[in-house]
Amino acid sequence: MAAQTNAIAGIASISVDGKKYLLSADCKYSTGTYERESLVGMDQVHGFSAKPHVPFISATLRNVNGLSVDDLAGMENVTVHLDLINKKQVTGRNMWQVGAIEVDAGDGSIGVRFEGYTGSVEEI
What we know:
Elements: E1 12-16, E2 19-21, E3 23-30, E4 34-40, E5 45-52, E6 56-62, H1 69-73, E7 76-84, E8 89-97, E9 103-104, E10 109-115, E11 121-123
């Protein structure tokens, strides 16, 4: 993918264990770190709690020949890689596919979500 100087969003590509897939839409990721929630008492804000947030990479793929729903559903211990037009590269290691995979026959799309352990998604 040719990097654009001023591009912020738009074009992206995805691969799983080195195999490229057609990326339809909805490409999202989180490096996972922590999720904070404010703790509010009846008198004032007392502070916050923090718990680990699950790192993930999710996307909507195009349902083309050679793409198997069963293969996607069974993926675990895979490396997921995104190349974004803003020159960022996102890599998730030792990830597994979560949730039910549903195919939208109307537009030929399949939503997938990969999750992993704390620190498994890195943004460069």
